[in-house]
Write a structure and sequence with these properties.
The complex is a heterodimer of chains A (361) and B (369). Helix content of chain A is 40%, strand content 17%. With 361 residues, chain A is an alpha/beta fold. Chain A folds into two domains: 17-134 and 258-282, 3-Layer(aba) Sandwich (Rossmann fold); 136-249 and 291-356, Rossmann fold (3-Layer(aba) Sandwich). In chain A, strand 8 (215-219), helix 9 (224-232) and strand 9 form a beta-alpha-beta unit. Chain B is mainly alpha-helical and 369 residues long. Chain B folds into two domains: 1-42 and 322-369, no CATH class; 61-318, ABC transporter involved in vitamin B12 uptake, BtuC, CATH 1.10.3470. Chain B has 14 helices and two strands; from the N terminus they run E-H-H-H-H-H-H-H-H-H-H-H-H-H-E-H. In chain B, strands 1-2 form a two-stranded antiparallel sheet. Classes of the chains: A alpha/beta (361), B mainly alpha (369). The A-B interface holds A 4, 8, 11-12, 35, 41-42, 68-78, 80-82, 84-86, 88-89, 99-100, 103, 123, 162-165, 168, 193, 346-349, 360-361 and B 54, 60, 64, 67, 161, 164-165, 168-169, 174-175, 177-180, 184, 198, 265, 269-272, 274-279, 311, 314-315, 317-319, 321, 323-325.
Chain lengths: 361, 369
Amino acid sequence: MKRFVVLLVFVLSVTLCGAAYAAFPAIPAEKINPGFVYIGPIGDGGWTYMHEQGRLAMEKEFPGVKSTFVESIPEGPDAARVFETMIRNGSKVIFGTTFGYMDFVQEVAKKYPDTIFMHCAGYKDAPNVGTYFGRMYQARYLSGLVAGKMTKKNRIGYVGAHPIPEVIRGINAFTQGVRKANPEAEVQVIWIFSWLDPGKEKEAAKALIDSGVDILAMHADTGATPQAAEEAGIYVIGYNNDMSAYAPTKHLTAPIWDWGMVYKETIGQVIKGTWQPSHIWYGLKEGMVALAPYGKDVPDLVKALVDVEKAKIVSGEWDVFHGPVKDQSGEVKVPEGAAMTDGEMLSMNWFVEGVKGDIPK
Amino acid sequence: MKLSIKVEPRLETPRMLGIAIPVISLAAALLSGAVFLFFMGVSPFQAYSTIIRSSLGDAYGLSETVVKAIPLAMAAIAVMLSFTMLIWNIGAEGQIFMGAIAAAAAVRYLFVDNHLAMFAIMFAAAGIAGGIWAAIAGYFRARWSVNEIITTLMLNYVAMNLLNYFVYGPWRDPASLGFPMTAPFPDAARLPSFWGTRIHAGLFLAILFPLIFWVILRFTRWGYEIRVMGENPKAAGFAGMSYIKNVVFVMFLSGAIAGIAGMCELSGLQGRLQHGFSGGYGYTAIIVAWLARLHPIAIILVSFLMGVLLVGGETLQIVMRLPLSSMLVLQGLILFFVLGGEFFRKFRIRILSGGATPPIATTSAKEEK
């Protein structure tokens, strides 16, 4: 196992920092026609909604750029056709907004070396493929502070989509925040094995409520968990965007995305001719992740605590997975004075102390 | 004078109606779709020509339409078989998943570095796995009258979770950084594709299966038997046909074909097992089978048309910047009218004026003369 981890880290560091690619020649704004491929409908109120907001922000910044999008494309072979159809209809830049498109991005990118691909949440690059994601774990940590302070029963529920590093990292960061604010509190996780399934999401939320948690947090694409929390009258931490519309009285805050930042930056680079493949992973400092406005029940003392912790992260003085970090069994995974590397965080596959739940193995 | 509208079952469908109704239905669908598109602010003519052009207009579009039609045709043949016997297998989706899981297992545990051998092994594995999955529901139905609509549907979720178990657990690719998918298949486990497109060898099966079952259902004694058995299990029993045995066998065949469809999709297009693998082909296939009126050859045609609709729909979103929901409305309108047209094939509407209505049978019989 140990050797395997070392190998993984090696592979990651090679893929992350490895090959230097040449910059792409400039493309005039009116010829870019960027195409956005979404896993869900733009009205999902979460993940895809926020990508769509990012696309609109980009169009506002570059009025000469006419973009296009397709909704609800599953993480399967259909994605390849949508990419190719966009290219055949004039798109010079393609944004694939979910992890499961990775292989199909690679497949089509090989066939169209003159088209730029930006793939969200994946790890494979190519001379014409870059990736983008954000240090959501930092905002999750801040939201965990709020939850840790607000829980009375010291039991917090967490609806998780897929047991993959992205979600596990978020749960861990959230729990680190919860435990920082309240060392007694625990975070109970339920997996729903789906990004976009409001029905399942709500069922999982209800199951957690029935088990006695008094705050819910979530990592899925829709507003179903906040809805369930509002109905049951317990506090909730949203995700993706300000979800207070789904839980008007119970929404505490939410770790949120600003995808427009990447979309504007990418298109700007393409126009200038400076775009080259990279692995974008911006955090609180750059503003790609943030906290949504607080609900009215969050006391000023809690907000002050968040501000202090946020300042430490933004200044680079400290980050969420700086040691000591213990795993579920209490074993020290990151010793005092050490910190997890990006590669280790990107392949995180274990829970920190304070999480209740399993990762399927 | 009192006017009343009366709906009567037809004793016989005039031949001409069999052709006229689908044509009129389609025309009505396109017309109402045009009104809808007009109010969406786009030119209906341009929208329809975009659909046709992108799905049939060039080699690429045509090839992708075929790619989409391949799993649909196979899965539709699968459900058609059980529907013919009035057994409602709506679990083709789960059987597709089982076929894919079995094929991935074959690649993992029984790998031979030879295209033909590997194809045979995956074919058998997928067929058996999908077949058993459906036969379980079939046996429960035949032996204890357990509603197969429920069992086949529920088994879909079991199959999906089984796939999750494997891709998250024992089969997870160590190089995937913890992401749920198997390692990419070696070349010998990929179906060959042709003409520089994504059309893969599954095409032959998608044509072969309908032909085979057309011959079986139309010209063999067994094909006749399962139809009779579906309509009247008791009478079939008196005639010496074993209902249980046949239900289980038909369900096995049905599931096997769906499983093979899953194998083709996996090995032909995807090249590795990962979460979210089928695009709901098992459910769309039910619509295809009904639109084709359970006729095996018609299934090929309808699958292709469904491919046109699906591929063209995507392009419509890209080119005309229409939201997905407007595509769904358009597709829904077409299905609504075409299936609704069926009503007029089976029933007729008469407008009567005043007085008592004579019994249906006598009126109809008289008028048929």
